User: Which sequence fits this backbone?
């Protein structure tokens, strides 16, 4: 993954630091909230991306996650519920020289904003979406969300939810997403690495962050993130590398027929050569979808960049069409337009 | 073509309506007729009347498509109440449109189309051409289908193809009636059918056949002579309200130096603005067909923050969906033009019909104290100017502006005297300069109370805006009660300040007197004609037609106070009249309203105004 970052964004002439992106506003998330780690990751990765600090822009909707723009010193819009992806689409199309970031939650982007979420992805507009998935409505104090596991007891599901949750990765790939990655809020190093890849990707990139809500859904991702068991329940995918996981690096993922399966290295003559080698750049999303859907207890949860396929972006094509029209149309200004077609003189 | 002008009738204005089946080409016929009228130096207004269905069943009332043209030597303000000439290509179109013909009107029908099945399908018990039901009209029964086929027989064209040119036969008859030349229409055929020489020849032959038939059999006993209109010298074109709106927006973008961004979702009758703007990438217009109405406006808000002249276009139900986002534009104090081409409501209502019933929604349809500027165009042609002004006000005052037009203005057409963009009022968006040490997101210009527009990418101006209440000057999130009051007051005062920058309200007629007729938006044509008629009859009636609604022009209270009676006419149940009552409760208001999806007729207004004058 060593493609140059998107060259339409102007690079900074000076070296930037974390301090360049810290805003003067008090951060009001609950102590222990996973969002703090995400904020810190962003402040760490933005200087590394190398763009001018004035060329970064944050857009959000409503929810705990969506307070994000106030806490980073960039240009930003804190929008209305669910509409961050649509606002960001307008921002990027209007000014393709900006590095545009969306901070959104599972309610904001999967429920009220579901329509905009799938359409920005389908269009492949070059916007980076950080999806804070804490499987709960936090700001409204604890109602189930579209990603809450079935059966969960919440304030609006006292007997347990009876809704099938979305798997965001599945939704992204179903909408023809070109970039999907997953990280956990307990691994800031991986988060920073993945954000950098998201920034480099031309097109809509979605980074799902499994985030803990200490108040309303504490330990909701514990099954994946718990220190004691995480090595057995997570697999960090790296492009070009075989899919190995486990505390002793003795487990792997292989393709058996049309399905993935977990195997143990050394058992039944299985070696590294039998394992799937991760190809994030593959255009066909088939394996990416299977990887995104892997879930405990049958599989480890896939982290890292699951898909990063190259496709033309909407914003590039807009610029191309405009350049072509400018070069080829007889209408160069509004006066030309007003006088085009049938006109006549009255003396 | 030598013609004996034995029976020339001088006409000031003539209303012609072409009606037929959806497939009969009535829209094209009407357009060619109006273009030729324009080239003959007449003023005009047109209105297409489509069925709501794309292809309704053949020969049914639901499938009737019409096109009305009002041409004249005088200034043409409306498309005319009733027509002088009705061209009906089949029984269904005659049945559904006879009510729009003046008593004694000339009715031209294709008698070949009145065969039994079609007559029955139209709902006639018997063929209306065979009884005396049309005796009150000048009925011209022409064998249009047969003569059209005959005219192209030698060109080797089959009947089915020939029948597609029937409309040109009717047009040829009209050209005889008006004594017009073919040149412009021939040119159109040559351009349109460039690769099909046979079709060019066929259409020319049929047009001539219609003309010659009229001449030979003296089908129409008279010839109309409409002298050239006294139009202001200049270059002219025919333009629909929706196209004029699109072009006005492009002109404002060009003049302000800000690129145009349109975020929009197709909706009748506003879609043509989206279609039109999508054509002009060469002017740098970025047109985003969004996934829904909300994405249309929110993408525009994103583009506005980024420095585009941002626009969203819609009709009534779409404006409802945009309400929350308009509030976001209000609190973020970003420029945004929202065009609402009004249609009949509520809900889906009457999508292809026209109304003025979204005024309340435009003024008040948001949560919280959320004032926006509201202006309204009053003719198809001046949609250009008011769209331009909407852009100018939005950018210079850093506020959302709702521009109200309607289906009647949007789809109708009129002559536009082509302006030079350089002659339009200049536009100065308050762009913040890089590294301005005094820049604060909500610091205001004392003249306009507008904040500065700080564009992403600019050095030294990084800032955040959003939907949470903002601290005065600094723009940080604030829940302070006194600050909230202050910001609510400032946003209201900023919109009211616009009154300092718009023209004073004009009056047509006596500056004081018995009765002031008040109207706004798309009813200008009918109301002004009605008032003029009464003024000519010596009545004490004046007319104030409002384009600027929020804020009202500064002199509004003063001028309302100069008349004994005020009659507010509008195509809703009384929204503007109540708005005037709210703003200027010291006066007594009378109202005249209609909510039928139809424009006012001049005659009903004349009656209503007369009745008001007679009331004690």
Assistant:
């Amino acid at each position: 993954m060593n493609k140059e970052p998107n060259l339409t964004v102007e690079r900074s002439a000076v070296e930037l630091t974390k301090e360049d992106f810290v805003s003067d506003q008090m951060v009001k998330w609950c102590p222990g909230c996973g969002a703090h780690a995400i904020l810190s990751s962003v402040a760490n990765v933005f200087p590394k991306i190398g763009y001018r600090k004035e060329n970064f822009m944050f857009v959000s909707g409503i929810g705990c996650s969506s307070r994000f723009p106030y806490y980073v010193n960039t240009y930003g819009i804190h929008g209305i519920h669910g509409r961050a992806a649509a606002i960001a689409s307008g921002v990027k199309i209007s000014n393709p020289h900006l590095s545009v970031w969306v901070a959104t939650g599972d309610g904001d982007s999967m429920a009220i904003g579901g329509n905009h979420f799938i359409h920005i992805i389908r269009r492949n507009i070059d916007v980076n979406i950080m999806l804070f998935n804490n499987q709960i409505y936090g700001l409204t104090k604890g109602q189930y969300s579209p990603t809450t596991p079935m059966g969960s007891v919440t304030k609006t599901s006292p007997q347990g939810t009876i809704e099938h949750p979305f798997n965001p990765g599945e939704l992204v790939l179903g909408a023809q997403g070109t970039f999907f990655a997953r990280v956990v809020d307990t691994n800031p190093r991986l988060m920073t690495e993945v954000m950098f890849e998201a920034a480099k990707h031309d097109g809509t990139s979605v980074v799902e962050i499994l985030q803990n809500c200490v108040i309303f859904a504490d330990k909701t991702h514990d099954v994946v993130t718990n220190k004691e068991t995480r090595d057995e329940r997570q697999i960090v995918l790296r492009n070009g590398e075989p899919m190995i996981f486990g505390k002793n690096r003795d487990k792997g993922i292989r393709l058996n027929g049309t399905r993935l399966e977990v195997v143990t290295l050394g058992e039944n003559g299985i070696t590294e050569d039998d394992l799937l080698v991760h190809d994030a750049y593959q255009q066909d999303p088939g394996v990416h979808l299977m990887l995104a859907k892997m879930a405990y207890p049958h599989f480890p949860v896939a982290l890292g960049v699951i898909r990063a396929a190259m496709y033309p972006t909407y914003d590039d094509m807009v610029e191309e069409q405009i350049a072509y029209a400018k070069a080829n149309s007889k209408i160069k200004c509004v006066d030309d337009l007003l006088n085009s077609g049938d006109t006549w003189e009255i003396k | 073509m030598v013609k004996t002008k034995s029976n020339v009738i001088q006409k000031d204005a003539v209303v012609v309506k072409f009606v037929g089946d959806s497939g009969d080409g009535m829209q094209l016929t009407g357009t060619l007729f109006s273009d030729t009228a324009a080239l003959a130096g007449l003023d005009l207004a047109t209105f297409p009347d489509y069925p709501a269905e794309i292809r309704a069943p053949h020969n049914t009332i639901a499938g009737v498509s019409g096109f009305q043209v009002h041409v004249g030597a005088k200034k043409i303000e409306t498309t005319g109440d009733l027509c002088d000439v009705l061209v009906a290509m089949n029984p269904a179109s005659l049945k559904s449109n006879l009510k729009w013909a003046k008593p004694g009107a000339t009715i031209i029908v294709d008698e070949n189309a009145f065969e039994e099945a079609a007559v029955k399908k139209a709902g006639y018990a018997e063929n209306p051409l065979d009884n005396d039901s049309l005796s009150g009209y000048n009925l011209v029964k022409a064998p249009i289908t047969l003569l059209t086929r005959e005219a192209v027989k030698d060109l080797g064209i089959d009947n089915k193809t020939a029948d597609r040119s029937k409309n040109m036969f009717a047009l040829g008859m009209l050209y005889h009636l008006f004594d017009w030349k073919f040149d412009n229409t021939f040119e159109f055929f040559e351009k349109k059918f460039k690769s099909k020489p046979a079709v060019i020849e066929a259409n020319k032959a049929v047009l001539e056949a219609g003309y010659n038939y009229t001449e030979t059999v003296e089908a129409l006993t008279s010839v109309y002579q409409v002298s050239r209109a006294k139009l202001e010298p200049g270059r002219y074109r025919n333009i629909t309200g929706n196209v004029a709106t699109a072009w006005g927006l492009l002109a404002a973008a060009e003049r302000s130096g800000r690129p145009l961004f349109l975020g929009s979702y197709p909706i009748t009758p506003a879609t043509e603005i989206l279609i039109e703007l999508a054509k002009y990438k060469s002017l740098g217009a970025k047109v985003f067909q969004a996934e829904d109405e909300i994405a249309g406006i929110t993408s525009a808000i994103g583009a506005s923050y980024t420095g585009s002249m941002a626009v969203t276009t819609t009709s009534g139900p779409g404006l409802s969906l945009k309400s929350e986002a308009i509030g976001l534009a209000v609190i973020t104090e970003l420029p945004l033009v929202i065009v609402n081409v009004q249609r009949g409501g509520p809900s889906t209502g009457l999508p292809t019909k026209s109304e003025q019933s979204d005024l309340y929604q435009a003024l008040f349809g948001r949560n919280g104290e959320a004032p926006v500027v509201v202006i309204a165009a009053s003719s198809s042609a001046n949609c250009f100017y008011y769209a331009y002004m909407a852009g100018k006000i939005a950018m210079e005052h850093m506020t959302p502006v709702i521009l109200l037009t309607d289906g009647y203005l949007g789809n109708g057409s009129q002559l536009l005297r082509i302006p030079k963009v350089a002659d339009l009022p200049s536009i100065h968006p308050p762009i913040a300069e890089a590294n301005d040490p005094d820049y604060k997101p909500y610091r205001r210009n004392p003249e306009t109370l507008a904040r500065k527009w700080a564009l992403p990418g600019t050095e030294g101006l990084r800032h955040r805006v959003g939907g949470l209440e903002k601290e005065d000057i600094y723009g940080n999130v604030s829940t302070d009660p006194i600050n909230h009051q202050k910001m609510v007051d400032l946003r209201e005062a900023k919109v009211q300040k616009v009154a300092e920058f718009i023209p004073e309200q004009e009056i047509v007629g006596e500056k004081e007197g018995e009765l002031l007729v008040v109207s706004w938006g798309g009813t200008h044509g009918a109301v002004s004609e009605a008032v003029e008629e009464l003024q000519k009859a010596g009545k004490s009636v004046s007319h104030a037609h409002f384009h600027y609604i929020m804020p009202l022009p500064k002199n509004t209270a003063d001028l309302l106070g100069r008349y004994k009676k005020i009659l507010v006419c509008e195509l809703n149940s009384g929204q503007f009249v109540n708005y005037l009552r709210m703003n200027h409760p010291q006066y007594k208001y009378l109202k005249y309203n209609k909510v039928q999806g139809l424009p006012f007729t001049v005659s009903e207004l004349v009656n209503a105004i007369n009745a008001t004058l007679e009331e004690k």
Summary: Chain B touches chain A through 68 residues (CB under 8 Å).
